[in-house]
Structure formats: structure tokens, C-alpha cells
């Protein structure tokens, strides 16, 4: 009898079998990944492949909407899609066992293709987790579908044959327990592989700089509640990258290769090599090209590192202005990311460095341990390669780096920007004196003036805090005599070349947002 209830319970049974098989597939894949290649778990590689293919506009939307949770949202989305598909395959498998189960290998192939398409793909180990996981899921689904078919074969859908029902439940229960242990074991193995890296970071002692940063001058910090601290603590420093699994690199086995066009003496450096060299320490404000006007993707830290131009000069590299053959330096990370910087900028005397320290400690893993690149004045995506392992000298004509292939500009100096940190949008301050304060930046040029405008009034000069260096942001404040009602506060900065921050609003794509930051408040 195909009563509605029996169809319903058959469907539920099939969906449960599919979900269990899907869960098992992922858990087994996790185990295989843990054994052979942690970065090749199916959700990680599919997520990575999605990120690689995300158009600039969608990426910006994701960053805008989900902020730094964008990666979690992506992975949850993938899991939900997989769950729905697995449940569907389970329902299908009750009727057409092989058709339903063969869906799994199909998705295994999708996972394997995604893995191979990742820039850091290395071969067989990359496809293994998806393929083995899918095979496990398919086999389990065949079994379960057989059992479930027998269970739901009863006349009224309640299952006439007690043994089969018990058999199904036992098998399903064993599946849950087995898959969960496999998944946990995989996670454990992945964690163990990074223990060497964690230990190498814990035991790393950073040498003192040969050229210390001058102390931050008195008066650099504005005293106003709600203003961004002048130095961004590491834990609060924004993070922008494509890595779903943060690379854990062992400092002991880390190498950096410098080679390519115009490199007369190609070399490979160990971390010890770098630490034995003179180290510079500098305050530098790093900015992301995806930062909207008023956005949070900017931070200032005290970095310790090796001067990059010295290293390049030793390898025989000359900037184009001195007859060098390469105009682009392509930095490559252990996860296959590529970032291209102008050789001229890197060698023009600014403090471009291979950084090993951030605010007095080794780089955090999130920020590129053991070594990252940093070029004052350039947006992160054209300069700040984290987990760097290779520097290739080439030309802009010959090679487009990762983001350039995705519609972002080849060259991207940081635009002059200013931001109101306090009051916050839609704040309700009391009438009287209200401190308006924030930060402004124009790395390499420096900030010479910040002005605030209330509604459509005249531009008023804000008080500038003391400038640390031209490579750092500068704090400012303005004492506003606030009158009751709704008001719009707007800020603009002028850099040391005399250029006033443009009012013209542009989007972040292709070379960074421009326009003025405004905040609406209601004075009570
Ligand atoms: N390996 C790697 N390096 C990278 C990126 C990345 O995705 N992968 N993102 C870049 C971008 S877009 C920026 S803005 C900076 C951000 O550095 P942070 O996360 O330490 O703030 O890192 C850069 N370096
Ligand atoms: Mo960025």
C-alpha cells in the first residue's frame, strides 16, 4: 500500500541513509586528509576553488556582508548544499540503489577536480581525500539502502520485519560512531602535523634590531574614547587572505628562494640566514584594497625584518631605473598565492622588508609566520605576501599575479583616506562639546591636514596628533559644538604632496575605494 504515510517514512529513511553516508564520506575524507594532506579535505578544496572563482564584486559583497566570518559562512554553505544532495541521493537510492550510490563518486570527482585546480595542488595526495571519502560514502549508502528497502517493505511502512529494522538501526549507529571517530582522528592527525610549526614558533627568539624604530613620539595618540589605538594589537589586526586552513609552516624547514629575470646570483635562504642579517624595525600601516570608505581593513604595527632591497641587491637585482631587466617582483606563498610588486618601489629606499616580527613577537600564523613581505605604501594584495617561500623577478608583461587575473589593478599604491572612529554612526551624543576623532593615512606621503564638515557647513581644521612616520596613519580630533537634531559629519584629509582626498566615490575594484567618510548622528 503506497499510503502517504509510508511514502513519507520511506523518504525519511532514505534521507537519513543519505545523510549518514554523506557524513561518513566527509569523515573518511577528513581522515585521509589528516594522514596525507591536511589542506586537501573536500570542504577546504571546494571552498578554495569557489574563492578562486569568485568574481571581485562577489568577493567584495561577501567581505562587506560577512566581514571576517566570510570563510565560515562559505564552509557552512558548502556543508548545507552537500547535506541536501546527500539526502536526495539517499531517497533516490531506496528505489534505484546504484543510481543513488553512484552520485557519491560523481561528487568525489568534483572534489578531486577542485583539489587539482588549487594553486598549491601537488598531485595524487590532493585527490585522495575526496575520492576515498566518496567511495566510502557510496559503499555505505548501498548497504543502508538495501537494509532500508527491507525495513520499509512492510505493508504499512512501519516495518513488518523487526530484525531488518534492528539491523538497519545497528548499522546506522555503527556508521555514526565509526564516521565520527574517523573524522576526529583525521582532525587529530592534522593538528599533530602542525605541532612542529607551533613548537618552532614558540621557541623562536627574535634578535634585537640593528636599526630600531624610533620611539613613537609623544602626542601621537589622541585621547578620545572610541578612537582606534595607534598600534593595533596582533589579536585585533585585520586578516584578509584566501586560506581556509591557515598554513602552519615549520620555521626549521622553511626556505626562501630568490630567482628569475636579471638575478645573477639566485639564492635560497633559511630563517637562520635571515635572522643573522641586520634587522630593521619600523612602524608601518598596512591597508587592504578591499577596505571600503570608513572600513576596518587597515592596521598599524611595529614590524621587524630584513631589508628586502639589500637581499635583492646581493642576488644581483637592479631596479628598472638602474637598467634592471625585471620590473615585477612576484612573491609566492606556501599555499600558492601570488602577489606582484613593482621592483622600482621595493628598491627605491623605502623600508620594504621580509618581516619576521610583529609588535614584539614572531609573526602570528594568521599573519604569515615565519616570514611575510611588507612594502610601505602599497595595498596588501600587491605587496604583503604571507607565508612567503619564493620570490621571482619577472615583468608585468610576462606575468599576472592572482588578483590581477581577477580584475584587480596591476599597480596599486594606497590612496589617501580618512575615517571617523567616534562618534559611531547613529550615535546619540548630548548637545555641547562632542569630540569627533579618527585616523587618516597616506603611506609614503604622510598626512598634513584633516578637515571636518558638519552638514553642509564650511570645512574646519581638525587637530592633528603628532605624525609617527610617513608610513603610519595619523590620528586627529575635532571639538564640535553640537546642537540638537540630526547631523552629518564628514572628514577629508590632505597628504604631504598637497593633494586633497577626493570626494569622488569609487568602488574598491580595481585599485581601492575613494571618497569621503560620513557619519550621521542625532544630538539630543
Ligand atoms: N599568502 C597570502 N598572502 C596574502 C594574502 C593571501 O590571500 N595569501 N592576502 C593579501 C592581502 S589582500 C592583504 S590586505 C594582506 C593582509 O594581511 P593581514 O591578514 O596580515 O592583515 O595580506 C596579503 N597577503
Ligand atoms: Mo587586501
Short description:
The protein has three domains: 2-200, no CATH class; 234-406, Oxidoreductase, molybdopterin-binding domain (Sulfite Oxidase, Chain A, domain 2, Alpha-Beta Complex), CATH 3.90.420; 417-523, Immunoglobulin-like. The strands form four sheets. It has a five-stranded mixed β-sheet.
Overall mean pLDDT stands at: 93
Give a short account of the largest sheet.
5 strands, mixed
Low-confidence stretches: 154-162
Q: Which shape, going by the Cα principal axes?
A: globular
Q: Taking Cα atoms only, what radius of gyration do you get, to the nearest Å?
A: 28 Å
The tally of beta strands, per DSSP, is 18
Quote the distance from N terminus to C terminus. Answer: 71 Å
Which H/E pattern describes the elements? HHHHHHHHEEHEEHEEHEEEEEEEEEEEE
For the largest sheet, list the strands in their spatial order: 2-1-10-5-6
- Helix tally equals 11
The assigned structural class equals: alpha+beta
Residue fraction in strands: 15-25%
Helix content: 25-40%
Tally of distinct domains: 3
Bound molecules: the ligand Nc1nc2c(c(=O)[nH]1)N[C@H]1C(S)=C(S)[C@@H](COP(=O)(O)O)O[C@H]1N2, molybdenum atom
Protein topology:
Layout: H1 4-36, H2 42-53, H3 56-66, H4 70-95, H5 97-117, H6 124-151, H7 162-193, H8 195-202, E1 255-260, E2 267-270, H9 271-275, E3 280-287, E4 298-307, H10 308-314, E5 328-333, E6 338-342, H11 343-346, E7 353-358, E8 361-362, E9 372-374, E10 388-394, E11 417-422, E12 432-441, E13 447-454, E14 460-461, E15 463-464, E16 474-482, E17 485-495, E18 517-523
Parallel strand pairs: 1-10
Antiparallel strand pairs: 1-2, 3-4, 4-7, 5-6, 5-10, 7-8, 7-9, 11-12, 12-16, 13-14, 13-17, 15-16, 17-18
The structure holds the ligand Nc1nc2c(c(=O)[nH]1)N[C@H]1C(S)=C(S)[C@@H](COP(=O)(O)O)O[C@H]1N2 and molybdenum atom.
The ligand Nc1nc2c(c(=O)[nH]1)N[C@H]1C(S)=C(S)[C@@H](COP(=O)(O)O)O[C@H]1N2 binds next to loops.
